[in-house]
Design goal:
Blueprint lengths: L2 H8 L6 H4 L40 H15 L10 H20 L6 H25 L5 H20 L8 H21 L14 H30 L8 H20 L20 H26 L2 H26 L9 H16 L7 H7 L1 H16 L4 H29 L1
Helix pairs in contact: 1-15, 3-4, 3-5, 4-5, 5-8, 6-8, 7-8, 7-11, 9-10, 9-11, 10-11, 10-15, 11-15, 12-15, 13-15, 14-15
InterPro entries: TAT_signal (IPR006311)
Length: 426
């Protein structure tokens, strides 16, 4: 039976009682007795990212506008600020230098939407510095922050009310509107007065800066949402609303997610190992934890987005959940067949990374390549964080190999999950 057929079969009432073997061993413990393997930061290597899933090209001018705004905000903060509090002055000087370096370094992200996210962050950092500097020099921006927040809320309400999932197909509606929908949700959170502007900004200048940065980030986020929507629609000839199609697909996928999650319920949110073997110090431990945790997170995200009425995002989260369940099932099978338990070495980590890379590379040849690329994001991100985690000592060799093994299993589950989602979109 092909992997795709096995995946589809799993969306029914198939259980995993034969895989369970729930013997109730104690939870996973310390690795202190294991031989230490010194991993180089590049042990996992890098990957070639698939093409961006957004259906149309995003012009560089969007990122350029954020850079220009960040530079303008930063220019209003002196390089050697003179404020009464010497400690605050020194922190402002150091933070300004770091912010300037980040702007000068630019942004190198695999997808344009990620680049916009990074530039919004730099813009927010610059606003925080300006707000802190103004507060430290006696300027009270409480009224300005409140006024800007109200303006953003009003504009957000108008844009959200006009968000009808207009697209040339239901699949394109998901790919085009999901990032817009996430931006709208992010903007909504950032219009809440948390942190609130302090009553005594001179005494708490950096709290004042954070409040100003939050509303600046809300404005930037809302601006990107509107611009992405306009860019997409300008490339399509008056596309119809796909609202009903996405609601129906979300309902069907919700049922599929619920059913497929039930096949692995004995392996979710468990305090004790569901396997008869001791997994401490092996990649199997990290693999199982990552696979199980990913299912719980994806299912929760899917349900939250459906309840919020974010149907394009709910479709994507359903795809994440379906692929995550299949990856967990594959991990369970492998662990019960005594895989992922051999001693770890630099070579074994590198070999596991190679297999994960091969699995990711195959995604672009799938029939639903753009959707598959979007669903593959959790596996892609594994290669993003591991080098830094290894260098900083956040993960040991067994954890790194387990995470890479999960990335391989998840990436292999993505094409059938993408195909299933596409079928439900009609």
């Amino acid at each position: 039976m092909t992997r795709r057929r096995r995946f589809l079969a799993g969306l029914g009432t198939l259980g995993v009682a034969g895989l369970a073997g729930c013997s109730g061993l104690p939870s996973l413990g310390s690795d202190d007795g294991d031989e230490y393997v010194d991993l180089p930061p590049d042990a996992a290597g890098s990957i070639e990212w698939p093409d961006a899933p957004f259906p149309v090209a995003i012009p560089p001018r969007l990122a350029a506008s954020h850079r220009e705004r960040a530079e303008a905000l930063l220019a209003a903060v002196p390089t050697d600020p003179s404020v009464p509090n010497g400690a605050v002055a020194e922190e402002l000087r150091a933070e300004r230098e770091r912010a300037a370096e980040r702007i000068d370094d630019g942004v190198d992200e695999p997808w344009p939407t990620d680049g916009l996210d990074a530039w919004r962050g730099r813009r927010s950092d610059a606003a925080a510095l300006l707000g802190a500097y103004r507060a430290a020099t006696g300027e009270d921006d409480a009224g300005e922050v409140g006024s800007r927040r109200r303006e953003v809320r009003s504009a957000l309400g108008s844009l959200a009310a006009d968000h009808e999932y207009r697209a040339s197909s239901a699949l394109e509606a998901v790919l085009a509107h999901e990032p817009i929908e996430r931006l709208l949700a992010d903007c909504r959170r950032r219009t809440r007065p948390n942190p609130a502007y302090p009553e005594d900004p001179i005494a708490r200048p950096f709290r004042a800066g954070d409040a100003l940065a939050r509303v600046e980030l809300a404005r930037a986020t809302l601006g990107d949402a509107g611009r992405l929507r306009a860019i997409y629609l300008s490339e399509r000839d008056d596309p119809p609303s796909r609202w009903s199609a996405l609601i129906d697909a979300s309902d069907r996928l919700g049922l599929a997610v619920s059913r497929t999650r039930s096949t692995v319920r004995d392996f979710l949110d468990v305090d004790e190992s569901p396997f008869r073997a001791e997994l401490d110090g092996t990649p199997a431990r990290a693999l199982f934890r990552r696979a199980s945790g990913q299912v719980s997170a994806a299912v929760d995200d899917h349900e939250e987005r459906r309840e919020a009425g974010d149907y394009a995002t709910a479709v994507i989260e359903a795809g994440h959940a379906l692929a995550a369940v299949e990856a967990l099932r594959a991990a369970i099978e492998g662990i019960r067949d005594e895989a992922y338990r051999d001693p770890v070495s630099v070579e074994s980590v590198e070999e596991t990374a190679d297999r994960a890379r091969d699995a990711i590379a195959s995604i672009e040849s799938s029939e639903d390549a753009r959707l598959a690329s979007r669903l593959a994001r959790p596996a892609l991100d594994t290669f993003g964080y591991l080098p830094e985690y290894i260098e900083r000592g956040y993960v040991d060799a067994a954890r790194a190999q387990g995470d890479l093994a999960w990335a391989e299993l998840y990436a292999r589950a993505v094409p059938p999950a993408a195909a299933f989602v596409t079928e439900r979109l009609g």
